[in-house]
């Protein structure tokens, strides 16, 4: 994923020791070609896992999730942050705390769209402390589905979420891993 | 868009006289092949307009927006419903009232990503009373960009938003137009 690395080096903005802003190509404005490459890369890495569904969370996971689902030729399911009035037929829910936003949200998926037959790949744009991923993994568990792995565009390794999840036995594939943003300097792993 | 019509007829659920639920293929679970076709169809209809940017609103507009942006080979910009802490360099905002959710939200786009040079195509999954579209059109106007048109997957024509917007001079292309959902019966226009 040289294209992704170049984009981050050129257009990523380091806002603080913890925040890398990628608003110009990932999570506000979206570069379609880059997203297609990201989707293909996740599909390549998980090609042997017979994935039946890609799961992500609205809103900024949807673009990554859709191109991954396209490449794997399976449906995308995105967890919702509001229980829609039309989601009356039963749902799984999970509470997710966002350190960035300093608030927690409940997320929902309708029970009928994730079952014990599913082999699920979770994808998201960022992995920091892993709260959103733990919430999504809980949804998969509640459905008795199989969590095949997690695909992450940018892992902020210094925030520890990835390590915790890997130690719990989850396979995580991160396209970019950041060792540090300290002093306004982007220090990548590898 | 026969595929879309078939999907709606087969899998759409009429919840009330005003609500058609398409959660199984558009706005909770997403069918990637259908989304690709939708994106290509919008690109075909607006092929001559030299569009430079596709604008939508999180969350359920993103999948439609991304495939349209792919087909047009331009960036996707999605308006955010929360002003992110990292969006400090100035933004345009607009207030949108949702009759479905009975609440209003402010939506934001960063000023730097939409300029007076842009020819903007707005896309969204649904058009009902047109509140979200008016909000997005306002963002385009604030930026002095050109609003080339609007692409809608499903227009609930009986709610009048499309008529109002067309009368104001906006070109709207809706892939499916619903005349009525009364009595649990899907009555399509054309």
From TrEMBL, chains A, B:
<comment type="similarity">
    <text>Belongs to the purine/pyrimidine phosphoribosyltransferase family. Xpt subfamily.</text>
</comment>
<dbReference type="InterPro" id="IPR010079">
    <property type="entry name" value="Xanthine_PRibTrfase"/>
</dbReference>
<comment type="pathway">
    <text>Purine metabolism; XMP biosynthesis via salvage pathway; XMP from xanthine: step 1/1.</text>
</comment>
<feature type="binding site">
    <location>
        <position position="27"/>
    </location>
    <ligand>
        <name>xanthine</name>
    </ligand>
</feature>
<dbReference type="GO" id="GO:0006166">
    <property type="term" value="P:purine ribonucleoside salvage"/>
</dbReference>
<feature type="domain" description="Phosphoribosyltransferase">
    <location>
        <begin position="45"/>
        <end position="157"/>
    </location>
</feature>
<dbReference type="InterPro" id="IPR000836">
    <property type="entry name" value="PRTase_dom"/>
</dbReference>
<dbReference type="InterPro" id="IPR050118">
    <property type="entry name" value="Pur/Pyrimidine_PRTase"/>
</dbReference>
<keyword id="KW-0328">Glycosyltransferase</keyword>
<protein>
    <recommendedName>
        <fullName>Xanthine phosphoribosyltransferase</fullName>
        <ecNumber>2.4.2.22</ecNumber>
    </recommendedName>
</protein>
<feature type="binding site">
    <location>
        <position position="20"/>
    </location>
    <ligand>
        <name>xanthine</name>
    </ligand>
</feature>
<dbReference type="Pfam" id="PF00156">
    <property type="entry name" value="Pribosyltran"/>
</dbReference>
<feature type="binding site">
    <location>
        <position position="156"/>
    </location>
    <ligand>
        <name>xanthine</name>
    </ligand>
</feature>
<dbReference type="InterPro" id="IPR029057">
    <property type="entry name" value="PRTase-like"/>
</dbReference>
<dbReference type="GO" id="GO:0046110">
    <property type="term" value="P:xanthine metabolic process"/>
</dbReference>
<comment type="subunit">
    <text>Homodimer.</text>
</comment>
<keyword id="KW-0660">Purine salvage</keyword>
<keyword id="KW-0808">Transferase</keyword>
<comment type="function">
    <text>Converts the preformed base xanthine, a product of nucleic acid breakdown, to xanthosine 5'-monophosphate (XMP), so it can be reused for RNA or DNA synthesis.</text>
</comment>
<dbReference type="GO" id="GO:0005737">
    <property type="term" value="C:cytoplasm"/>
</dbReference>
<feature type="binding site">
    <location>
        <begin position="128"/>
        <end position="132"/>
    </location>
    <ligand>
        <name>5-phospho-alpha-D-ribose 1-diphosphate</name>
    </ligand>
</feature>
<dbReference type="GO" id="GO:0032265">
    <property type="term" value="P:XMP salvage"/>
</dbReference>
<dbReference type="GO" id="GO:0000310">
    <property type="term" value="F:xanthine phosphoribosyltransferase activity"/>
</dbReference>
<keyword id="KW-0963">Cytoplasm</keyword>
């Amino acid at each position: 994923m040289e294209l992704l690395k170049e984009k981050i080096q050129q257009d990523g903005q380091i806002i603080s020791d913890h925040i890398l802003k990628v608003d110009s190509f990932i999570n506000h404005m979206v570069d379609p070609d880059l997203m297609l490459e990201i989707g293909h890369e996740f599909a390549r890495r998980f090609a042997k896992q017979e994935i039946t569904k890609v799961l992500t969370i609205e809103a900024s996971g949807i673009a990554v999730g859709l191109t991954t689902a396209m490449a794997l030729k399976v449906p995308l399911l995105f967890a919702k942050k509001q229980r829609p009035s039309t989601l009356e037929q039963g749902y799984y829910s999970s509470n997710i705390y966002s350190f960035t936003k300093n608030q927690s949200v409940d997320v929902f998926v309708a029970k009928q769209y994730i079952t014990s037959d599913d082999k699920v790949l979770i994808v998201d744009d960022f992995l920091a402390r892993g709260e959103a991923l733990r919430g999504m993994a809980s949804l998969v568990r509640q459905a008795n589905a199989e969590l095949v792995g997690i695909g992450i565009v940018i892992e902020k390794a210094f925030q520890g979420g990835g390590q915790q999840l890997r130690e719990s036995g989850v396979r995580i594939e991160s396209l970019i891993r950041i060792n540090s943003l300290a002093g306004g300097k982007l220090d990548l792993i590898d």
